[in-house]
Amino acid sequence: MALLGLRIRQLNGVTLTAGKSRGQQKVVNTHGSPRKVESGAYNSRMSALLPLTGVVITFNEADRIGRCLASLALVCTEVVVVDSGSTDGTQALAAAAGAHVVHKDWPGFAKQKNFAIAQATQPWVLLLDADEWLGTEAIDDLRTLFAAPEVSEADVFTLQRRTHFLGTVMNHGSFAREPVERLFRAHCRHEDLPVHERLDTRGQRVRPSCIRMEHDTARHVDEYWAKLQRYAELWATERAAKGKRVAPGRASAAGLAYLLKNLVLRAGVLDGPGAWRFHALHARYAALKYRRLRALSSPRSG
Q1: CB atoms within 10 A of CB 24
Q2: pTM of the prediction?
């Protein structure tokens, strides 16, 4: 699986990578300076790869990082993994898969992703989470995109993300083809937001694509619900700080609207019991956001 043929070791916060084919060393430091990749540093197999840096940020992802990196290695000239101190061997697995592994203490999602993007030596970045991957069709679609002249007319492409929930694939509803901005030129950076940081696309040429990425969203139900609760609290706290208020009944309406949209109007009911459970959790999440906002923004007595 070590398709990039790299040997990686870390010394005092610096990652040294040696290309086996020429014995060259490339240096990445954890303070944000990008590596310099010399011309001809890649072996002949690299000629089939695209001018892409695959980027992944990790923390304790040993159980699912392999699938992600294996898919990136099929299409990316290089893969960069920025790890924030995993204790389960994630770093070693990533190195064995051929990635450039860099350690950086956790500064928050946007800052960590921006640091990882800054390590890219290729003109384009493909950003995945450790629980995401590309299927064979997506790999083919990426190659087709980069062979077309339209690629020069964009700075950002949206990919279509399909969610998997505990063995159930979402082929209907909002999570069947969720547009996400994951393929972009290396100068792009994320906005630093408390919840769901996003790529700053102001002034960028954004284009849609048919490329589908897969997302295995949960290890188990309790973990997933705990994550949704954290998101709801962050969402509510951010809006309460801006003086936002909620009318009575808004929380219940949000939950019902979610179910109507995803189970009925977008036919999510056809995906079966696993999908029903998934959408029930998200309906609870939609309602919880507004309940927490109402609690935070209501005047306190006494």
Answers
A1: 13
A2: 0.81
